[in-house]
């Protein structure tokens, strides 16, 4: 319950409790606090039981911790009924990118080999020069402007 309270913080709370309530009343205050915490836990468990009974037998194994999104996602990823591990393992981004790069490089090399040797553009070995501005098509190649489409 108090996982994030260190020993120094605990000593500080005890000293403050002794100073505020005094050594005579401190045991009674601790009993009252523990009794209140116990009643809250009983009320919470009773409410959980009532909700489970109202949901019906199909939600018999329902856990309220599953309502936390992190817990729900972790539980669903551990459950392999959907085949998520196969999908995750079957998708290799590096391999896909290498295939795309090879396809682009082979298309560029085919285009450069099919162009005439009198072309003014120097061949870059299938690479794309990012510093060079792309060629703009002439006014004849532009599609017609449609005012209703915008």
From TrEMBL:
Residue ranges the record marks as coiled coil: none
Main subcellular location of this protein, as a coarse class: membrane
Tagged with keyword Cell membrane: yes
Keyword Transcription tagged: no
Region (Disordered): 99-150
Pfam families: TatA_B_E
Membrane disposition: Single-pass membrane protein
Alphabetic keyword roster: Cell membrane, Membrane, Protein transport, Translocation, Transmembrane, Transmembrane helix, Transport
Transmembrane segments: none
Location of this chain's protein in the cell: Cell membrane; Membrane
Similarity annotation: Belongs to the TatB family.
This protein's name: Sec-independent protein translocase protein TatB
Organism: Streptomyces musisoli
